[in-house]
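Subject: Sanity check before I submit

Could someone independently write out the C-alpha cells for this chain? I want to compare against mine line by line before I put it in a report. The sequence has 122 residues.
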Amino acid sequence: MSDRIFLRDLRTETIIGIYDWERRVRQTISFDLEFPGDVRRAAESDRIEDTLNYKAVAKKVLAFVEATHSHLVETLAERVAEMILKEFPVAWVKLTLNKPGAVRGSRDVGVVIERTRADYGL
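---
Independent answer below. Compare away.
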C-alpha cells in the first residue's frame, strides 16, 4: 500500500534544550508526520470514521509536547512517535522534529525518525 496521510509544520512551544537559558523559555518546534493509510474506504464512504483522524492526532501531539520538557530533540521525537503508535491505529510513523533557530547561521535543525509498532512491542 502506498497511500500516506500527513501533517506538515505542526507547531507548538515547549521547554527543550540542554542549556540553562533554554530551560527557562518556551521554544517553538514543529513536526512533520507521515502515516500509512489505505484511503480507499474513506474515499468511498466519505466518513471520518473510515480513516485516520489527523485532527485528533494533531491535538494529541500538541497536548503531549506542551506537557513535556525534554533536553534533546531526539528524546522528544522518540516519545512522540511512541505515543502516536500506542494511541492510534497506524503501523508506522515517520516523524520530523524541527527546532528553528537552534544553531546560529542555520534556519533549522532537528531529527527524522521512522518507527513501527514492533519497535515498542505493540
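---
OP: Matches mine. For the report I'm noting this point. Strands lie at 4-16, 27-36, 69-70, 92-98, 110-116.
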